[in-house]
C-alpha cells in the first residue's frame, strides 16, 4: 500500500531532525587537545619506532591530557601525576578494561590470560586467584629458598666468567627464568640436564623476547581493522608462530603435572603454581570455569612477566652505575657497612640498605619496563578538567613521561638515587610519581615477587663484584638506547668485565 505524501515528508523531517541532534551532540563534545588527524591513518604518522618518546614529545606541545586517533580508534594519553591518578585511581573502574588487539588474540589464547582479558567475571576471578593463591605473602615467603639458590648460582657463574667479557643480560635472564620456572613449573624445564626438555634455554629466551616485542608493537591492523587480514608488517604471522612454540611447551608442562596428580591420587600436594592452577580448574565452585587453555595462558603470563621485568631492570641499573662510579662507590660502602664482606646479601637485609633501594627506584623511574603501561579501554563516558572522554576510548598512561616531568623531579634526566633516600615514595602503586608496576585494579599482580628478585639480584651483584666496561671502551661510548615492546630493554646488550671482591669460598666455585 502506498503511503500518503505527508507521511513521507514527516518521516524525512524527523530523520533530518534526528541527524541534526546527533551531530549537535557530537559537536558539543569537548575533546582534549591534540594534533589534527589525517584521513584513515589518524595520527599514526606521528608515532615513530619508539612510541613512548613520540608521545612524550607530542605531550610537550599539547599537554598532559592529549587526544589522538590511531586509525579508526580514539586514543587519550595521560602524561602527568594528576592524569595517572584520574585513570588509575579516581575512575579506575571506568578504565579497567582492555582493547582488543592481535597480540591478545593470537598470543594469549584469545584473551584468556591476566594481562589482556577484558573486564568481567573471568578477569575478576583471575585477579582474585593471583592475589589470594599465586602471589600471597605466605606463598612468596615459602619460595625464598629458590630465589636464594638461583641468585647464588648467578654469582657462581659470574665468578667463573670473571676476567673475560660478560654479556650480562644472558646471565640475568637465566637467573630470572630459573626462579620463575621453579616457582611456577616446579623445576627447571629448560635445564640442559633435563632429559625431557623440548626447547633449549637459548630458544626459550628468544621466544620470550619475541613475545614481549610483539605484545607492544604498533600493529597497523589494531588501528585500521580492514587492513588486519593483510598483515602488512608480518606481526600476526610472527604472533602465531611464537604462540605455537609456547603451546607445545605448555602442553608438555601440563601433561607432566597431570600425570603426577593421577599417580599420587589422594596424597597429592601442590608444589608449584601450575599445580595450584590445575586444582583451581577442578573447583566446581568457580564463578567461571577455568579451561585448559586458560591454565596455559596464566602459566605463560607468569613465566614471561616474571622473567623479563627483573632482567631488564637490573641490566639498566648496572648500565647507569657504570656511567656513575661515585654512585657505585656509595652503594659498595653501604653494603660493606651493613652486610660485611663475610656473607651474601639476604632478603631480610634489603630494608637496611636504603641507598641500594634508592638505586632500584631511580632505575625504575628512568627505565620503566612498561613505559606506557598496558593500554586500557574506557567502559563509559567520563569527563576530566572539562574535557570529554567518550566510551570505548583507548587510554595510555605514560609513566615514562611522568618519570621525566620537571614539575615532579629535579633534574629529571639525571640518574640521582639520592632523590629517594629518606623519601616515602614507593613502587607499590600508591605514589603516582613512580608507577613501574602500574596501579589500581590492573596493577601487575606479581609486583612483589619482581621487586624481591630485582633487589636481591642487584644488591648481591654490587656486593660481590667490581664492575667495569671492556678494555678500551669509555663510559661516553656506552649506548643507552632502548627498543620498544611490551617491555623496553637495552637496544645493545650490556657487555661488562667483572672482578670478584669477596672471599673465594662464598662463590661456591
Report on the structure:
Belongs to the cytochrome P450 family. With 509 residues, the chain is of the alpha+beta class. Helices cover 48% and strands 7% of the residues. It has a domain at 121-371 and 411-507: Orthogonal Bundle (Cytochrome p450). The chain has helices at 5-28, 51-62, 81-90, 102-107, 121-134, 137-142, 144-161, 168-185, 201-214, 220-223, 235-264, 273-281, 292-323, 325-338, 354-366, 399-402, 447-464, and strands at 65-70, 73-78, 165-167, 376-377, 382-384, 387-389, 394-397, 465-468, 495-500. The strands form three sheets. A four-stranded mixed beta sheet has the order 1-2-7-4. Strands 3-9-8 form a three-stranded antiparallel beta sheet. It is globular. Mean pLDDT is 91; it is low at 21-26.
Keywords:
alpha+beta; 509 residues; 3-stranded antiparallel β-sheet; oxidoreductase activity, acting on paired donors, with incorporation or reduction of molecular oxygen; globular; Cyt_P450; Cytochrome p450; iron ion binding
The assigned structural class equals alpha+beta
Mean of pLDDT: 91
Q: Count all strands and give the number.
A: 9
CATH superfamily (homologous) name of the domain at 121-371 and 411-507: Cytochrome P450
Our estimate of the beta-strand percent is 5-15%
* Overall morphology: globular
- Rounded to an integer in angstroms, the radius of gyration calculated over CA atoms is 25 Å
Order of SSEs = HHEEHHHHHEHHHHHHHHEEEEHHEE
The percent range for helix content is 40-55%
Please name the CATH topology of the domain at 121-371 and 411-507.
Cytochrome p450
N→C terminal distance: 96 Å
Taking pLDDT < 50 over at least 5 consecutive residues as the criterion, the unreliable ranges are 21-26
Strands of the widest sheet, in order across it, are 1-2-7-4
CATH class category of the domain at 121-371 and 411-507? Mainly Alpha
Give the biggest sheet: 4 strands, mixed
Q: In the CATH classification, which architecture of the domain at 121-371 and 411-507 applies?
A: Orthogonal Bundle
Supply the number of helical segments.
17
Amino acid at each position: 500500500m502506498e503511503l500518503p505524501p505527508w507521511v513521507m515528508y514527516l518521516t524525512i523531517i524527523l530523520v533530518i531532525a534526528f541527524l541534526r541532534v546527533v551531530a549537535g551532540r557530537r559537536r558539543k563534545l569537548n575533546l582534549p587537545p591534540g594534533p589534527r588527524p589525517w584521513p584513515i591513518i589518524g595520527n599514526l604518522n606521528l608515532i615513530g619506532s619508539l612510541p613512548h618518546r613520540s608521545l612524550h614529545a607530542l605531550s610537550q606541545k599539547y599537554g598532559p591530557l592529549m587526544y589522538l586517533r590511531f586509525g579508526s580508534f580514539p586514543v587519550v594519553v595521560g602524561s602527568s601525576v594528576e592524569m595517572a591518578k584520574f585513570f588509575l585511581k579516581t575512575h579506575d573502574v571506568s578504565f579497567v578494561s582492555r582493547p582488543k588487539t592481535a597480540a591478545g588474540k593470537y598470543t594469549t589464547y584469545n584473551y584468556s590470560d591476566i594481562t589482556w582479558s577484558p573486564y568481567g567475571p573471568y578477569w575478576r576471578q583471575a585477579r582474585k586467584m593471583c592475589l589470594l593463591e599465586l602471589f600471597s605473602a605466605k606463598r612468596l615467603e615459602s619460595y625464598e629458598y629458590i630465589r636464594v639458590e638461583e641468585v647464588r648460582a648467578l654469582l657462581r657463574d659470574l665468578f667463573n666468567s670473571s676476567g673475560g667479557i660478560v654479556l650480562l643480560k644472558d646471565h640475568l635472564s637465566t637467573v630470572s627464568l630459573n626462579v620463575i620456572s621453579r616457582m611456577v613449573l616446579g623445576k627447571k624445564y629448560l635445564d640442559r640436564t633435563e632429559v625431557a626438555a623440548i626447547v633449549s634455554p637459548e630458544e626459550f629466551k628468544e621466544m620470550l623476547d619475541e613475545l614481549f616485542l610483539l605484545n607492544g608493537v604498533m600493529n597497523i591492523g589494531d588501528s585500521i581493522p580492514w587492513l588486519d587480514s593483510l598483515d602488512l608488517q608480518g606481526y600476526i604471522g610472527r604472533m602465531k608462530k611464537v604462540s605455537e612454540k609456547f603451546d607445545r611447551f605448555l602442553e608438555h608442562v601440563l601433561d607432566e603435572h597431570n600425570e603426577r596428580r593421577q599417580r599420587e591420587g589422594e596424597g597429592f600436594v601442590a608444589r608449584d603454581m601450575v599445580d595450584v592452577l590445575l586444582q583451581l580448574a577442578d573447583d566446581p565452585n568457580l564463578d567461571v570455569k577455568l579451561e585448559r587453555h586458560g591454565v596455559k595462558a596464566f602459566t605463560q603470563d607468569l613465566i614471561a612477566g616474571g622473567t623479563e621485568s627483573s632482567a631488564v631492570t637490573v641490566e639498566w641499573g648496572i648500565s647507569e652505575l657504570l656511567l656513575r662510579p661515585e654512585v657505585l662507590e656509595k652503594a659498595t660502602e653501604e653494603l660493606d657497612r651493613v652486610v660485611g664482606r663475610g656473607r651474601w646479601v639476604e632478603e631480610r637485609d634489603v630494608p637496611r640498605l636504603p641507598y641500594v633501594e634508592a638505586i632500584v627506584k631511580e632505575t625504575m623511574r628512568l627505565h620503566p619496563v612498561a613505559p606506557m603501561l598496558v593500554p586500557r579501554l574506557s567502559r563509559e563516558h567520563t569527563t576530566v578538567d572539562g574535557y570529554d572522554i567518550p566510551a570505548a576510548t583507548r587510554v595510555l598512561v605514560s609513566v615514562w613521561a611522568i618519570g621525566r616531568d620537571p614539575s615532579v623531579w629535579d633534574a629529571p634526566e639525571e640518574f640521582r638515587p639520592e632523590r629517594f633516600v629518606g623519601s616515602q615514595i614507593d613502587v607499590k602503586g600508591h605514589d603516582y610519581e613512580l608507577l613501574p608496576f602500574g596501579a589500581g585494579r590492573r596493577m601487575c599482580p606479581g609486583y612483589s615477587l619482581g621487586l624481591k628478585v630485582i633487589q636481591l639480584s642487584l644488591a648481591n651483584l654490587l656486593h660481590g663484584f667490581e664492575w667495569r666496561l671492556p678494555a678500551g671502551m669509555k663510559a661516553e661510548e656506552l649506548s643507552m638506547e632502548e627498543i620498544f615492546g611490551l617491555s623496553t630493554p637495552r637496544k645493545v646488550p650490556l657487555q661488562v668485565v667483572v672482578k670478584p671482591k669477596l672471599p673465594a669460598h662464598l662463590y661456591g666455585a
